[in-house]
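Side project, low priority. Logging it here so it doesn't get lost.
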Amino acid sequence: MKTIVRTVVSLGIATACFAVDTPLEERKISVSGTASTQVVPDLINWSISTSYESTNLVEAKESSDRKSKSILALASELGVKPEDVQTGYVNISRKYDQDEHGRRPDFKGFRVRRGFTLKQHDLARFDEFLSKLVSSAEMEVGFSLTSTTMTELRWDTRVKAVKIAKDTAVAMAETAGQNLANRLNCVSRDRKKGAR
């Protein structure tokens, strides 16, 4: 199993420089750089949601509360640390019966939905977690694989993409008979003079 981190970076590079007494007219090229980093995941994020419907909102809410407590108890049974359990959204909506024309004339009841996220650090216990989570018919379960170093990986991948874009810009400038470093210095110098 591998997770892929992909970053695309676009840069605009000025490629024209003129004498001081000539109005500055920049010609630009745009380049992009794409970099990917593959990493073996070391974390599973479990997404759990529950829902309950009733014509009585208080009853629907109380049933949702009971389901929430059972999920938290199951997380504790699986050895998930409290800091790796996140209670998410709570959504209360009205439900209507629809007729054959898609109209909703009759009020059906209230639906209370809640979401939770569990973090599993021991990937070897995946089947155990999956079996216990899906054994309850009162919840919907999904998961995603990720890495605890994702922030650093995204940054490193972004830096790679910028380098690729810069190398592409240098190659294009050289092909056009320009020196990218000189062009950038020239444009920067003229901008400073124009700002005075």
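Brief comment: The helical segments are 57-77, 126-134, 150-175, 180-194.
Revisit when time allows.
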